[in-house]
Design a protein that fits this description.
This protein is α/β, with parallel strands linked by helices. The protein contains seven helices and 15 strands. It has a five-stranded parallel sheet with strand order 13-10-5-14-15, sandwiched between helices. A four-stranded antiparallel sheet has the order 6-9-8-7, with no helix packed on it.
Length: about 220
């Protein structure tokens, strides 16, 4: 078959078109297809179960540095032309990995319309975190603050954060997923029945994809 035969054997048909694995396709072409690559970098099954709550830690999961590492500086923050922030002492703050793309997808892709986004953090400087959320944008003018309607940002265990989310929303723990860079938080929240993903390098495409697959597997 030569090169053409190789191409045909390594592609899948989507609405009569050839889709090369790993290449994103418009959502209008994905109806009924088996898999697709999302803007945030996750290669997932279109018919998979989606969590009703997607929750993230803040410090060292969605952004760096952690708020306590800004002691001696901190607020007020200035927004830079590249989307990063600078604190009053000149320390640069950035969103990690694919955090912006993931939050943007959760807020704009129709498949997530029934999903609530949450931040669960016991950051040492909640007022600084609030200012950073107002300034960081994830795309099309959507700020981090607007991207997550549920915010549990106060000193407490992560299990307490999730108990409050469960009480306020009525959503079962089994229909939630949580991403955190601290393993002990993942272990404790997992005991509630939440799918927990340890993210030591923050929100990368690999961790996002792994989380969605693990959540779907837990629904079987």
């Amino acid at each position: 078959f030569g090169k053409l035969g190789l191409l045909l054997f390594t592609t899948t048909t989507v609405s009569g078109l050839l889709a090369v694995p790993g290449v994103a396709l418009p959502s209008t072409l994905l109806q009924g297809s088996k898999s697709a690559t999302t803007r945030s970098g996750a290669h997932i099954n279109i018919k998979m179960a989606y969590p009703r709550v997607v929750a993230f830690d803040l410090d060292a999961t969605l952004w760096v540095p952690e708020m306590y590492q800004l002691w001696g500086g901190g607020a007020p923050f200035k927004k830079n032309g590249d989307g990063s922030l600078t604190d009053c002492k000149g320390t640069r703050c950035t969103m990690m990995g694919n955090s912006a793309e993931i939050l943007y997808e959760l807020n704009t892709d129709p498949k997530w319309k029934d999903t609530k986004v949450a931040y669960c953090s016991c950051t040492d400087e909640p007022s600084w975190a609030a200012e950073c959320m107002r300034l960081f944008e994830v795309g099309d003018g959507i700020t981090m603050e607007k991207a997550a309607p549920i915010k549990q940002i106060f000193k407490a265990t992560k299990t307490e954060h999730f108990k409050r989310i469960h009480k306020d929303t009525g959503i079962p723990y089994a229909q939630m997923i949580f991403f955190d860079n601290e393993e002990h938080n993942c272990r404790s929240v997992k005991q509630l029945g939440v799918t927990c993903i340890y993210t030591p390098r923050g929100m990368t495409p690999a961790e996002w994809s792994r989380g969605l697959k693990e959540y779907a597997s837990n629904q079987k």
